[in-house]
Model the fold of this input.
Amino acid sequence: MSQAVAPRGLEGIVATTSGICWIDGEAGVLSYRGIDIHELAAKSTFEETTYLLWFGTLPTAAELEDFKQKLAATRTLPASVVTFLKTLPKEASVMEVLRTTVSLLSIGDPDDTDSSHEANVRKSFRLTSQIAMIVAYFDRIRKGKAIVEPDTKLSHAGNFLYMLTGEKPITEAEKAFDVALILHADHELNASTFAARVIAATLSDVHSAITGAIGALKGPLHGGANEAVMKLLYEIDAAGADPVEYVKNLLNNKVKVSGFGHRVYKTEDPRATHLRRMSKDLGTAAGNAKWYEMSEKIEGYVRGEKKLNANVDFYSASTYTTLGIDMDLFTPIFAVSRISGWAAHVIEQHDNNRLIRPRAEYTGPAYPAPYVPLTQRS
Done:
C-alpha cells in the first residue's frame, strides 16, 4: 500500500522535468525558455514565440521567415472536415465542435501513425493553423455567413481575425491579438497541458493528446473563466448597477467572482499586466472604454477587500469583447494560442518519454475488508 501523501489537486507537487516554461509564483514571473513574458509581449510575435517553444531558441531572421511560410502553408482543412462542420447544429458549443473536429483531423493525416520528432513537428504546424481555422469557419457557418478563406500573407493573428470577421484587421487590433496569443501560449503544467502529457506518455498520437487537452480546457475551472467575467460585466451593464456595489453584494452572498486569484501566482499574474493595458488602450481607441472602466473598479474593490489579484482571465474578457469577439469564442481562442504550448510539451514528452503513472492516497475501508456473502447483506 502506498504511503505517499499528496495535497488535494497535487498542489505544489513537481510531476516532471521540462525545459519549456518556468514560473515563479511568489515573484510573479512567467518565462518561456527562460525569456521573460514581458520581453516577449513587448518585442516578439506569436510565430517567433511558437518557434521558441518548439525548438528551444529564438530563430534567426531566415529561420523565422521559413517558419512563418511553413505555418501559413498549412492553413487548409480537408474538404470532408469542412463538410462535417456544415452538418453540425448551429447552436453547438464551439469547444465541443473544436474537440471533436481535432479528433477527426487525425483520420487521414499523412503522419497519423508516425510519432517521430520530425512527424510531431509537422503535425504541430498543421494543428496550429487548423485549430484557428476550425474556430473561424464554424463561427461563420453558424451565423449563416460565407466562409472566409485564409490569407497566407497575413500573420497568424491577422489571418484569424480576417477569417473571423471578413475584414483585414487594423494594425492596432492585429498587434493586440498577437500579444494576447503570446500571453496565452504556455503556462507550464496547467490542467490541459498535463492532460496532454499524460496522454502522450502512453505513446498515443499528437491528435489524441491535443483532443484531451481541449477537453480539459473546456472546464469552467480552466478555460471558461474569462467568459464568466464577461457575463458578469454584461449583467452589471444591463442592470445599470454600480460595479462595486454589484460585486460587493455577490461576495456578501458567497457568490464567487471569476477572474481573481491563481493557484500558482501569489502576486499579480504577469499576463494580467499586459491585458489590463490592452483593454484600456483598445477601449479608448474604440471610443468605448466602459468595459475597461467597469473592470478597473471591480479589480480595485476585490484587491482591497479580498486581497486577491486579477488573473489572466479578468482583463482578457474586456479585451476580446472590444475586439468584437463573441463571448463563447473566448475559450476556443485560448486553444488557438495554447496549441503552441501543448505541441511543445507533447514533442518534449515523446522525445524523452516515461509513462506517467502516479499513485493515489487510499482513503477507503481498511484492508483487509471482509467479503460479506449476498445472503447476509442487509
